[in-house]
């Protein structure tokens, strides 16, 4: 109920009237049943506008740190992510990654929409980066359709490191659903996982028209951080 009120009465109408998003292909999102929306990731606000546009609730898996902050800021952050329909997960790797996978599968098992970012993190420079194969494993284990989604212009509205967005139009393009049923039962094959991931990212590249870089975005972030002199 809280999610519905925030989306349809409080926050949603205000954001839609200010940013006036343009949308292509929304009819490609199934009206019922489990589905994965796999999107490029340019800005923090991607997780806001995508759920606003889709009629059904969209669940994202968010860092658990967003739900454990202290004080007024921590409370406000927690309430915001709850209002956006996001679930806390531990992204530290190992067993935590397995728990994240199981959480996503549970959401899909309930017949809901799961939003994921194949790149694993926001693009540091607006380019499209190599996808993480954990996404493919979830796709194959769930056996559900995948709709690629391109977010357009969100990096210009709210770049990494900024707190307040600029008022510009947002674009959201939904591609044709992808069917990976031909790989059923092969989620343990790393070559299959890479093939599925690359096919998905290829579609995102075509929809978004971003320049593609065949490295992980997180690797680039780490390299840049290492090169930045400490003060």
Automatic annotation (TrEMBL):
GO cellular component: plasma membrane
Record bears the keyword Isomerase: no
Residue stretches spanning the membrane: none
Protein's GO biological process: phosphatidic acid biosynthetic process
Alphabetical keyword list: Acyltransferase, Transferase
SUPFAM superfamilies, A to Z: Glycerol-3-phosphate (1)-acyltransferase
A matching Pfam family: Acyltransferase
Phospholipid/glycerol acyltransferase domain residues: 35-154
Keyword Acyltransferase set for record: yes
UniProt-recorded name of the protein: 1-acyl-sn-glycerol-3-phosphate acyltransferase
């Amino acid at each position: 109920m809280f999610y519905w009120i925030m989306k349809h009465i409080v926050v949603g109408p205000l954001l839609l009237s200010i940013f006036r998003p343009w949308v292509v292909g929304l009819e490609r999102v199934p009206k019922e049943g489990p589905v994965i929306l796999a999107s490029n990731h340019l800005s923090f606000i991607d997780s806001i506008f995508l759920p606003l546009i889709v009629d059904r609730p969209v669940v994202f898996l968010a860092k658990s740190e967003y739900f454990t902050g202290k004080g007024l800021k921590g409370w406000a952050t927690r309430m915001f992510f709850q209002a956006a329909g996001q679930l806390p997960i531990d992204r530290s790797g190992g067993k935590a990654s397995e728990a994240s996978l199981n959480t996503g599968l549970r959401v899909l098992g309930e017949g809901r929409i799961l939003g994921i970012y194949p790149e694993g993190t926001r693009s540091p420079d607006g380019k499209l980066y190599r996808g993480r194969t954990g996404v493919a494993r979830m796709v194959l284990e769930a056996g559900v359709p995948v709709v690629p989604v391109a977010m357009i212009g969100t990096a210009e509205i709210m770049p990494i490191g900024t707190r307040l967005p600029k008022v510009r139009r947002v674009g959201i393009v939904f591609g044709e659903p992808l069917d990976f049923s031909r790989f059923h039962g092969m989620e343990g094959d790393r070559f299959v996982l890479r093939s599925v991931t690359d096919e998905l990212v290829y579609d995102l590249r075509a929809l978004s028209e971003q320049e593609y870089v065949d490295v992980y975005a997180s690797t680039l972030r780490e390299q840049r951080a290492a090169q930045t002199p400490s003060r």
